[in-house]
Design brief:
Oligomer: heterodimer
Radius of gyration of chain B: 28 Å
Number of helices of chain A: 20
CATH topology of the largest domain in chain B: Cytochrome Bc1 Complex, Chain D, domain 2
Helix content of chain B: 55-70%
Shape of chain B: elongated
Distance between the termini of chain B: 118 Å
Distance between the termini of chain A: 49 Å
Strand order of the largest sheet of chain A: 13-12-1-14
Largest sheet of chain B: none
Number of strands of chain A: 16
Strand content of chain A: 5-15%
């Protein structure tokens, strides 16, 4: 057993309102520099939709992630031999059009336009060429089903849905969508790290954050092609790749990452999980239908004395182990099993898990008001407006069972809370629902509290980073502090 | 006594050695500069056979002629004009850097060689029998480099063009002069051509073949080939260049098609085709 600690994330999609506050918080802190203008380390997509970059989930085109090959797995985009014939031109690189051409506006025209019969306008200007452009696409161009006849219709997750199901999905009365916020998954088996010819990408030992070393990056852009989530971006100005850093400078000082901190719907949770790094290769190799259970089995019980002992042997701090025991992520993933990884079939074993969204209740207009179509208060999850197959393609590795388990449990908690707080539902019925959903009353209460009443401290259980101890290995912390003052990363030295 | 004798032997030895070094250098000089037009006892080429030339004219006249042939001809010297007539109007070129001393050495060499029964500068003697098809084929093989030269010289093909070497033609170091189709006619037949091949006299070829001279049988085959091409071949410069250009264009197009096949699964575009397909 080789125990590692990992900051793991939960996004509760049933609470996401698609306000993009997370994206803006991230952009303002990290990607408002020249060359990063098109990057969205955090973005929010509407599903069904093609996302950003367009149809990133279509790995037949983008060639991201891993694939089974001769009994083991290999990168879809590159390899030790395959890199040679492609050394001068990477054939799997998304073009600017598949992201979008970043633009600003000619605001000065609002003030300086000569007097005329019309209101002056601020025309869009390309931030690449500096010319006036007609904006044709943007990072959330298909927001709220915008242009759905093009974008939503071509969502790769619609694969396997019958023609009838597709038509229902887009019928006016049935029309439904949900939001899908995305950041880097800081995977356990990251394809970007594996693909880098310069060894510039690495996974931090202490918390598993995946980073690009800006000094070692040589602009091969293999990571851009290899990441199946398209979450590594190439900075065209500095000539280096960049990606979400999980706001590690904030996390190291005990603050939640900016997108987590700013989340209006409080959908985001952050906590430590302990996992067994020895079994990553074995689990990444499992058949697709066993991947979700396989990844769950990698995640270790932080209260198990044997695990604690092994964690100590690997130098994991006591405070981190304690943090793992209080981790909301562990509960969502392992105990309640209602958080699921996005596209586990890419075999990167992502550490960002999603609680799948409940579809809104179907109601229809009747004389005197709206009326639910079903007899019951909540309709059965099998008649959800979002087809189960669609959610299974996105979060279940194609298996509807995993998704329906998570949805059934969420619904049972609703029944239970309705019985407790309103009382128009019998507790007997609620308990039956819970039992069917494999959920105890205590668990239901916990899910309810962590979903609805959660404070900062409940959502973000961040272990102390012990940065002073990290420096201690190389230098006296007090001396280090004094010699690198005044904003230099490396301290000033005598001589040239 | 024995000491003095040995000293004398030493001095004489050194002197003799100097003389023989001088003779060797002059022989090489002759080979490089004179042999493409002259033989010693091998008959007339472009210039006259030099066997016994020192008996035909006095050394003073010869020296002044060698140092500057054109001046001698221009001065209206009768014998010089006769030589010019015999050489069909070709004025002997002035060898760069030659002086009276060097001319003297040359005359010494010619005198010594004339006395021999068979001079090393007799040149190559090629019979007048018709060449066989085999000789011609061997010549072509040598020209194109399929048969490598015994002394390691480069194939003619790398700088020269001639008929029968393939559609793309041979090298074109000089667009006009490098075409050897009619070289047999230019050099007036077997004897001159073969002698010329024995010691090529242009600066480019001289530097290349100085240490990699052609063997007699190689020269024989090449002459056979050149004779054949002069009789049957056409100077095909323009069409060869056009063929070359066409080959380039077609080759580039084929390479592009090949790249397209190899990288068929490459990323082209995703969003644009989606949007375009809905516009239709």
């Amino acid at each position: 057993m080789n125990v590692r600690s990992q900051l793991s994330m939960i996004f509760h999609l049933d609470k996401c309102i698609g306000c993009h506050t997370c994206s803006i918080a991230c952009k303002n802190i990290w990607t408002d520099r020249k060359g990063t203008d098109y990057m969205w380390w955090n973005n929010v997509e509407t599903k069904p939709g093609t996302g950003f970059p367009s149809k990133w989930e279509d790995q037949e085109k983008y060639k991201g992630g891993w694939e089974k090959h001769n009994g083991t797995i290999r990168l879809k985009s590159t390899g030790k031999a395959r890199i040679i014939p492609n050394i001068f031109h990477n054939p799997n690189m998304p073009s600017m059009d598949d992201y979008y051409e970043p633009w600003t506006y000619d605001y000065q025209n609002l003030f300086n336009a000569p007097e005329g019969p019309d209101q002056p306008t601020a025309r869009p200007i390309s931030m690449i060429t500096g010319d006036y452009i007609d904006v044709e696409s943007g990072p959330n161009w298909d927001d709220d089903l915008g242009g759905s006849s093009i974008y939503a219709k071509n969502d790769p997750n619609l694969e396997g849905l019958s023609e009838e199901q597709r038509q229902q999905l887009f019928a006016i009365e049935q029309l439904v969508f949900f939001y899908f916020p995305r950041i880097c998954n800081h995977c356990m088996n990251p394809a970007c790290v594996a693909s880098c010819p310069s060894g510039a990408l690495y996974k931090r030992g202490e918390d598993g954050v995946v980073l690009v070393d800006q000094k070692r990056c040589r602009a091969w852009r293999s990571c851009v092609a290899a990441c199946p989530y398209k979450k590594v971006y190439y900075n065209w100005f500095t000539g280096k790749s960049e990606k979400c850093i999980l706001c590690f400078p904030r996390v190291e000082t005990g603050q939640a990452p900016a997108c987590f901190h700013s989340c209006v719907g409080r959908i985001r949770y952050l906590g430590v999980i302990l996992y067994d790094a020895d079994r990553i290769e074995e689990v990444s190799n499992l058949p697709q239908e066993e991947l979700i259970e396989g990844q769950r089995s990698l995640i270790l019980d932080p209260s198990d004395p044997h695990v604690i002992e092994e964690a100590r042997k690997n130098g994991i701090a006591e405070s981190t182990i304690k943090s793992a025991q209080n981790s909301p992520s562990y509960k969502f993933i392992k105990e309640w099993k209602i958080a699921l990884p996005p596209h586990i079939e890419y075999r990167t074993l992502p550490n960002l898990f999603y609680v799948p969204p409940m579809s809104p209740v179907i109601a229809e207009q009747k004389a005197g008001g709206l009326d639910s179509i079903t007899e019951d208060l909540f309709h059965d999850i099998s008649s959800s407006r979002i087809p189960m197959k669609f959610l299974a393609n996105l979060f279940g590795g194609g298996q509807e069972g995993k998704v329906s388990y998570a949805l059934r449990k969420q619904k049972a908690v609703r029944w239970y809370r309705r019985a407790v707080t309103v009382g128009d539902v019998s507790m007997e019925l609620a308990e039956r629902m819970l039992k069917e959903a494999n959920c105890t009353i205590e668990e239901a209460q916990e899910i309810y509290e962590l979903t609805s009443l959660c404070t900062f401290e409940d959502r973000f259980v961040i272990p102390p980073a012990h940065r002073e101890e990290a420096v201690e290995a190389l230098k006296d912390p007090l001396e280090h502090k004094q010699s690198t003052g005044f904003g230099f990363l490396t301290g000033p030295k005598r001589g040239m | 006594m024995s000491l003095r004798l040995s000293r004398l032997t030493l001095v004489l030895g050194v002197l003799l050695a100097c003389a023989s070094v001088q003779a060797q250098e002059t022989a090489a000089y002759f080979k490089q500069n004179c042999m493409s037009c002259h033989t010693i006892g091998g008959g007339k080429l472009t210039g006259p056979d030099l066997k016994g030339v020192t008996e035909r004219k006095d050394r003073e006249w010869l020296t002044s002629f060698i140092v500057n042939p054109k001046a001698k001809v221009d001065s209206g010297d009768a014998y010089a004009l006769q030589l010019l007539d015999e050489a069909r109007g070709v004025v002997m070129p002035t060898i760069a850097g030659i002086d009276a001393e060097q001319a003297g050495f040359l005359l010494d060499l010619i005198e010594a060689e004339s006395a021999l029964e068979e001079s090393q500068f007799k040149g190559i003697q090629i019979s007048n029998e018709p060449f066989t098809q085999k000789d011609i084929d061997t010549g072509l093989a040598i020209f194109t480099g399929r048969q490598s030269l015994k002394n390691g010289g480069p194939a003619c093909f790398s700088c020269h063009n001639a008929p029968g070497v393939g559609v793309l033609g041979g090298g074109r170091l000089d667009p006009v002069k490098a075409d050897l189709t009619k070289v047999y006619e230019r050099l007036q037949g077997r004897t001159v051509l073969s002698t010329w091949l024995m010691s090529p006299a242009t600066p480019t070829m001289q530097s290349i073949f100085k240490n990699a001279s052609l063997e007699k049988d190689e020269i024989y085959s090449l002459v056979a080939y050149f004779e054949n091409s002069a009789q049957h071949g056409e100077v095909g410069q323009a069409s060869a260049q056009l063929t070359f250009a066409l080959f380039g264009i077609v080759g580039a197009a084929l390479a592009l098609v090949l790249f397209d096949v190899i990288w068929n699964g490459r990323f082209v575009a995703v969003r644009r085709p989606l949007v375009d397909s809905e516009k239709l």
